[in-house]
Amino acid sequence: MSVHPASTLLLVSGSVRRGTVNSAALATAASTLPGGWQATMYSGLADLPHFSPDLDTDGGPRPVLDLRAAIRNADALLFSTPEYAGTLPGAFKNLLEWTIGDTVMTGKPVAWLNPSTAPRRAAGTYQALRTVLAYTAARIVEDACLDVPVERGQIGADGVVTHPDVRRRIGGSVRALTASAPNGR
Ligand SMILES: Cc1cc2nc3c(=O)[nH]c(=O)nc-3n(C[C@H](O)[C@H](O)[C@H](O)COP(=O)(O)O)c2cc1C
Questions:
Q1: What CATH code is assigned to 7-180?
Q2: Which of 61, 73, 85, 156 is most buried (most C-beta within 10 Å)?
Q3: How many CB atoms lie within 10 A of CB 30?
Q4: Cα 84 to ligand 1 centroid, rounded to whole Å
């Protein structure tokens, strides 16, 4: 009997703060994965060096190699990021810059959750994310991109959102993203 290896959803949060809402949204996504999928939360954001073409050589810095390997091994990526000063956090933009000079993102199914509760719904950061992703040649799965406001009070002690409607909506996004992946189920 042949056993298919699980497909991998890579979760990438644009926030490095403790108790981050964006990481909680992604952890919630992980808790709604369909069968045949596993989730990996990328945790190296704060360790990446500032992007420089001078460092972007064969070999390259270990954190960059690890980032690219995580993306290469993923069947789909899900992002969630805060807005800082009207656009992407510098640390997260830096991560994306490290993916531009490589082909790891080419054709990769990607989507995002937007958990912002701000009146302008962090529109600037998600517009910027769309712009930068276009340079990576990732495939944005529009049906999986979701505005889903998450209040800090909705995050349980386990770091996952408990509100049933929020969970249902995030689960719908995850299903749309995973179903669009080449080995989607
Ligand atoms: C320096 C700074 C700048 C911010 N700028 C914006 C902004 O331009 N627009 C916005 O909606 N929120 C802004 N915020 C609020 C954060 O986006 C908000 O706290 C977000 O929920 C943080 O997500 P996290 O909990 O995942 O870190 C800013 C926060 C900080 C600390």
A1: 3.40.50.360
A2: 61
A3: 18
A4: 5
CA of 113 to the centre of ligand 1 (A): 15
Pocket of ligand 1 (CB under 6 A): 15, 17, 20-22, 82-86, 116, 118, 122
Token code pair at residue 30: 């992980």
Query: Helix (H, G, I), strand (E, B), or coil: what is residue 6?
Result: coil
Owner of token pair 């996504």? 29
pLDDT of residue 3: 66
How many Cβ atoms from other residues are within 10 Å of residue 91's Cβ? 16
Give the H/E segment covering residue 123.
helix 123-136
Q: Given a cut of 80, is residue 178 above it in pLDDT? A: yes
- pLDDT value at residue 185: 61
Token pair for residue 146?
Answer: 């979701």
Which two structure tokens, joined as six digits, stand for 145? Answer: 């991109």
Residue ranges covered by each domain of the chain: 7-180
